[in-house]
Amino acid sequence: MSTGPSTGIGTGPNNGPKTGTPPGGAGVPGGEPGAPAPSGGALRSGGPLLEVRDLRVEFRTRDGVARAVDGVSWSVAPGETLAVLGESGSGKSVTAQAAMGILDTPPGRITGGEILFRGRDLLKLREDERRRIRGARMAMIFQDALSSLNPVLTVGDQLGEMFTVHRGMSRRGARAKAVELMERVRIPAARERVGQYPHQFSGGMRQRIMIAMALSLEPDLIIADEPTTALDVTVQAQVMDLLAELRRELGMGLVLITHDLGVVADVADRIAVMYAGRIVETAPVHDLYKAPAHPYTRGLLDSIPRPDRKDADLYAISGLPPNPVAVPPGCAFHPRCPMARDVCRTGEPELSRVSAERESACFFWRECLRG
Ligand SMILES: Nc1ncnc2c1ncn2[C@@H]1O[C@H](COP(=O)(O)OP(=O)(O)OP(=O)(O)O)[C@@H](O)[C@H]1O
Ligand code: SF4
Ligand SMILES: [Mg+2]
């Protein structure tokens, strides 16, 4: 069932904000880039960079308790890209926010699990220790670049601030660093554009600036939460390619959160599919594309527009994801599942091993694999 470092992903026993660096911060609000590692011993090297283990997050709402994240486990290694996929409300962002330490508590509450960064449980660190890690070692990129950038500061000033405030560099040195970063994220004419304001850049270029901010302090890990959703399809592909290239160049770990299975095929190494706060399938990306082992993943794959199909042929998974305060009993996917049988309405399928690197939380994964 669950997974440990072997597959890197899984679910437990039963199974926002904006990019990288908001104005004045690094990676996430309150970051302290450049600061030394937290006290209490050196961080362990080797093994996964970030490991989420059996994480549980709840929200108390007027309608009841929403189990937004219900026993999720995944991990990412240096140089690896993990895509976390699922429809709206499946718990992707809440997992990421908990991992980064930027979850609003309240209303959210982490009720269980561990978040290990190079083997140290971030949930047990003091807030100042946590801030140092997320500033210098982990950064986050969000969907909405425009509202993350300060409209009254030039992009050069915003990028440079990383280096003046956190690294004590001169303004001139910081400006040179800003240009270097803009070039690194392939912004044409960086030297000329460094003095421009965010609104003077296109959506795709603004997202590149956010990526530059996230990269500024050379983090070990970037979590990108729907980094291309606001962009048109061509620009989406360019930004994805850029992230993949940078990950290779810099050897970072990358967690790529998306609801669009179509955008991750060429970028991710592994995929974790979430449904109603749980992981329902994990697999190396090519295995999953070739033959999904969960009907939900199959539905997502069939929903990807393909050039050989007319729009009218496009499949859509019937129904809607469940309300998190009233998740159906049994398999949470059963009301929408074309393969559901009686047992699915009462029995809760746990993640089980499909192969050395794959898991599925479906009673009938063998049938699903066969197509
Ligand atoms: N502040 C909040 N108060 C109450 N419930 C919340 C809050 N934030 C998130 N949730 C609930 O947690 C669940 C998971 O939300 P999350 O934002 O992680 O979804 P997601 O998978 O990232 O979806 P999307 O693709 O729309 O970004 C949702 O059902 C949502 O309603
Ligand atoms: S356990 Fe049943 S309802 Fe759930 S995905 Fe598998 S076949 Fe469908
Ligand atoms: Mg989200």
Automatic annotation (TrEMBL):
Does the entry feature the keyword Hydrolase, yes or no?
A: no
**Compartment(s) of residence:** Cell membrane
Task: Give the span(s) annotated as Disordered.
Answer: 1-47
GO terms classed as biological process: peptide transport
Q: Where is the composition biased (Low complexity)?
A: 37-47
This protein's major location comes to membrane
Report the transmembrane regions from the record.
Answer: none
- Keywords, ordered alphabetically: ATP-binding, Cell membrane, Membrane, Nucleotide-binding, Transport
SUPFAM superfamilies for the chain: P-loop containing nucleoside triphosphate hydrolases
State the similarity comment: Belongs to the ABC transporter superfamily.
List the protein's name: ABC transporter ATP-binding protein
Recorded source organism is Streptomyces pacificus
